[in-house]
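To close the chapter, one final illustration. This time we ask the reader to focus less on the individual chains and more on the assembly as a whole: which components sit near each other, and how the overall shape emerges from the parts.
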Amino acid sequence: MPQPLNLLKETPSQTAGPYVHIGLTPNFCDITGVYPEDLGTVMVGEATKGERITVTGRIFDGTGTPLRDGLIEIWQADASGRYPGPTDPRGGADPHFTGWGRCPADGETGVYRFETIKPGRVPWPDGRMQAPHISFWIVARGINLGLNTRLYFPEESAANAEDPLLKRLEHQARVPTLVGKREGQTITFDIHLQGPQETIFFDI
Amino acid sequence: MTEFGINTPPETGAFLPRDRNWHPPAFTPTYKTSVVRAPQKALISFDNSLSEVTGPRFGHNLIGPNDNDLIINFARPGEMAIGQRIIVHGRVLDERGRPVPGVLVEYWQANAGGRYRHKKEGYQAALDPNFGGCGRSITAEDGSYWFRTVKPGAYPWPNGVNDWRPAHIHFSVFGSGFAQRLITQMYFEGDPMLKLCPIVNTIADPAAIEALVAPLDMSNTVPMDARAYKFDIILRGRRSTPFENRREGN
Ligand SMILES: [Fe+3]
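The assembled structure is written out below.
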C-alpha cells in the first residue's frame, strides 16, 4: 500500500428542507427577537457606488410551478469588479457594498428580489475579462445539493459574446437561460429547474 | 498564531472538485419532491475564477450573546425550552484538514417533540412557547464552534404514507469562498430511524451517511446539565498553489 494522501471527504450535502427559513431568515417566518434582522436583506446603502438595479424572478419546477419554499443567495463584485472583503487578493472594493444577498421566495408568489448594483467585470484566471455577472446559489426542499448558476446582463451583448465561460459552452442555444430580461432598472431572471428552458447549472 | 487565522488573508486558490458520487444526486425518486426539482441536463464544469474563490465574510460582532443557546434565545425571561439538554460542538475543517476560522455556521431544528415553529408545519406535536429553533456561531481560530440546545424529536412528513425523519439538526456553513457553500443535516448516533429515512438514503455511500452521524461525546458532557455530541464539518479544500504555473509577470 502506498502512503495515504490524508485528504478528508467533504461533508455530504442534505436538502435544506421546507423549513430553511427558520435557520436562515427567521424574522421572515415570524421567529422574531432572536436576531435583530435577517442576514443578506440589505446589500447597498446611500454611499454605494454604481448603478442601482433590482434583480427579481422566480424558480420554476419541472411542471412550471414556481417554488414558494426556495431560498437564493447571490454573490457579486462591486461596480469596479472587485469582491468585498479579505477574500479578493486585489483588495480595494467599495466598503459600502456587501456583495452578498440572501432572499427567500415569497410564500405565495415565489418571487425573489434583490436591491443591488450592477457589478463590474472580473478577470478570468488567464486575465481575460468576464462579462458582468452575479453568482446564484439555490436551495430548497427537494434539492439535494445547492445549485449554482449565474445571471448575465442583456445590455452587455458584446461582453457576453467574449466572456470566457459563455463562449466555451457547447450548446450555445442554452446561453439565453443565463441572461436576464431588462426593463428600466429591473432585471428579471427566472430559473427553470427542468424542461426545455432548463437553466444552465454549473459544477463550480 | 495560526497560518490561516482570522487576521491573515484567506487562501485564494481554486477549490478541489466536488465528488458528486459522495453527495446525493439531484434525482432521487424515493424522496419524491426531488423528481420535479432535479436538473436533467449535465452540470457545466469550469475551473474557478475570482467569482467562486471569493465569498462573504461575517464578523464576530454579528453574533449576539445568546445566538448559540437555543434553550434560551427565544424563551421568555427566566424560562427555558423543554427537552433533553445537549451541547453540539465540533470544528469546521477543509479537505486538507486545515481549520476554517471566522466562518458563519447557522443551525435550525424542530423542538423536543419534533415540531417546527413554521406556518407550513403540519405535525400535531405541541409547540414549545420557549423554543424558536434557530442559532448561529462564527468559528474560532481553530475552526471550532459550539451551541446548546434540546435534542430534537423525530417527526412524520408527507412522502410515503408513514415516513418519519430521524432526529436531526440542519446546518448551513459558509467557507472562505462561495463555492464552499454547504447545507447539510446532522444526525444522532444510534438512531434506529436513520436507515428508514428517504432523505438520508439519497446518499448512496454508507461511509458518507456515517459522516453525518454525530457520536455521543461524554468527554464534553457538562455533569448535571447537558450531554454532548460532536459534529465536525468538512468543507471543500483548495488546490495548493506552490506548483501552479504562473503567467509572465505574475
Ligand atoms: Fe428538518
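Chain B touches chain A through 95 residues (CB under 8 Å). The domain at 18-35+55-245 of chain B is CATH 2.60.130.10 (Protocatechuate 3,4-Dioxygenase, subunit A). With these observations in hand, you are ready for the problems at the end of the chapter.
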